Amino acid sequence: MGSCCQAMCNVQKNTNVRVSLPVVCFVWQIAMVILFGVFIRYDDESDAHWEEYKAENNITSDIENDFYFRYPSFQDVHVMIFVGFGFLMTFLKRYSFSGVGFNFLIAAFGLQWALLMQGWFHALDPNTGKITIGVESLINADFCCAGSLIAYGALLGKVSPVQTLVFTLFGVTLFAVEEYIILDLLHCRDAGGSMVIHAFGGYYGLAISWVLYRPKLKLSKRLNGSVYHSDLFAMIGTRLPPLETACKSRQATSDSPRFTGTLFLWMFWPSFNSAITDHGAGQHRTAINTYIALSSSVLTAVAISSLSQKRGKLDMVHIQNATLAGGVAMGTAAEFMIMPYGALIVGFLTGIISTFGYLFVTPFLEKYLKLQDTCGVHNLHAVPGMLGGFTGAIVAAAATESVYSKQGLIDTFDLEGKFENRSVGTQGGFQAAGTCVAIAFGLVGGALVGLILRIPIWGDPADDNCFDDEVYWEVPEEEESIPPVLEYNNHMINKHHELSESNFSVEQS
User: Fold this and answer.
1) What whole-number percentage of the chain has pLDDT above 70?
2) d(CA 154, CA 356)
3) CA nearest neighbour of 477 among 242, 305, 314, 138
């Protein structure tokens, strides 16, 4: 297989996607129209027969429609997917169009395919053969897209738009299967997706990146980094005037991966983890635990970042990434009675682990395992997701009736029907097994999809042309004008210089 892959690498790259990209977009979108027409219908709470449904089920008010409970959380999750994850990709100095644009493309196609794939597994009516969807379906579709967007972080700058659609098609499919196994067959609880979203998405992207390893990627090293204003733009989402024409900005090295969009993601993560939990105490508790864990990971990330530098200076890489690790790691256990101090401990430890990952693990993976992880998804999603899954297993196994109450245990772990006799110890074991399933699907599925993406027909860039928007976008000319503040400062500097020269000439005369 090695010689075959090497032969593929030696083929001359052709980045012209004028035919392949429109064909894939049109054909796949037409396929979505047909499949939606055959399978997708509104559920009882979004159908025009809602009034009849209310009467049959003794519902007295429209406010009891699930839309009013779920839509605020859906909006928060939606912002995370399209804005948080989108700007998360904008740190590269010449790849912002692709970071935001391809994120948009992945999510727009992925959510359609996810509604179908998840519907076939979870919402297919055996009597009618139809899939019914409502607001919770939209949230789950966004969750499904998140797995592929996480994977894209590992591949950022090295794949074509056609390849992004291909790995999204397979990523959503694999996600739906592993989600069905973990949540339905193993009956695990994973409201915030530490297992099914983060562990799967992280290892899926890493496996693809490993198969697509580029030994000559350093030819694009000049573009694999950021400038001052691009990091700030990515962190806050506010565009600053271009500074390249006014001054030489400090540039990051290729071993300085950035994970950005931090503030949007950090603020909305409690909604992400609690969006599909049970109404009432479960949803309330999930938001609290996530909120607390996130705050803890900020302090430990700052502490380790400062300790890692001789003069104690902070590294924006760590602040943009490891501060989010607490939210990832709390995805599974947030719904459980982990207690506020337990949430603090989870955030404390994952902030440390994630920061150390950026300091030591990422360079090790690239040097010795030939794994080029552009955004460092290993440290923010894969490892914290895995740790979150195992944390959930431990907390589940330690659950007691005195802490949860009898009904609380049933509600939290959904111990009803064929699972009513399952013990908490057994539940903990299945939670651990679910984490392993997610990792296995990510690694094996990613390796297979990586082999498909190696076929030289997708229009991916050459080694010396990665991380550059101009390969796939019409990029406007950069303005040569100097920003007003800098222009004023430069003007005054010149004035002072002229005055000093004038004084000197008078004295000489």
Assistant:
1) 84
2) 18
3) 242
DSSP 124: B
CA distances from 138 to 40, 68, 143, 317 (A): 13, 14, 9, 32
Distance between CA atoms of residues 464 and 459, nearest Å: 14
Q: What's the per-residue H, E or C state across 336-395?
A: CCCCHHHHHHHHHHHHHHHHHHHHHHHHHHHHHCCCCCCCCHHHHHHHHHHHHHHHHHHH
Q: Which pTM was predicted?
A: 0.88
Contacts of 67 (CB under 8 A, 6+ apart): 45, 46, 134, 135
The strand pair at 40-42 and 131-133 is best described as parallel
If DSSP states are collapsed to H, E and C, what string results for 3-62? HHHHHHHCCCCCCCCCCHHHHHHHHHHHHHHHHHHHHEEECCCCCCCHHHHHHHCCCCCH
H or E segment and range at residue 444? helix 424-453
Q: How confident is the model at residue 91 (pLDDT cuts 50, 70, 90)?
A: confident
Provide CB contacts within 8 A for 509, sequence distance 6+: none
Strands (E), 423-509: none
Closest-CA residue to 199 (of 377, 14, 431): 377
CB 72 within 8 A of CB 270: no
Number of H helices, E strands in the chain: 22, 2
Confidence of residue 236 (pLDDT cuts 50, 70, 90): low
The neighbouring-strand residues paired with 42 are 133
Name which of 364, 226, 216, 358 is nearest 301 in CA terms.
358
> What's the burial of 455, exposed, middle or buried (CB within 10 Å: 0-12/13-18/19+)?
exposed
Residue 123's pLDDT is 93
**Model confidence at 7: pLDDT above 70:** no
φ and ψ of 498, to 5 deg: -65, -40
User: Measuring CA to CA, which residue among 401, 294, 291, 380 is closest to residue 337?
Assistant: 401
* Interatomic CA distance for residues 142 and 148, integer angstroms: 10
Pairwise CA distance, residues 59 & 52, whole Å: 10
Residue 424 amino acid letter: V
Asked if residue 439 lies in contact with residue 199, where contact means CB atoms within 8 angstroms, the answer is: yes
Q: Tell me: the pLDDT tens digits for 148-164?
A: 999 999 999 999 999 99
Phi, psi for residue 429 in degrees, rounded to 5:
-65, -40
Distance CA 441, CA 386 (A): 13
Beta strand segments in 94-162, E: 131-133
Output phi, psi for 239, to 5 deg: -80, 125
Structure tokens at 206: 């890493």
Give Cβ neighbours of residue 167 (< 8 Å, ≥ 6 apart): 148, 151, 152, 155, 159, 208, 449, 453
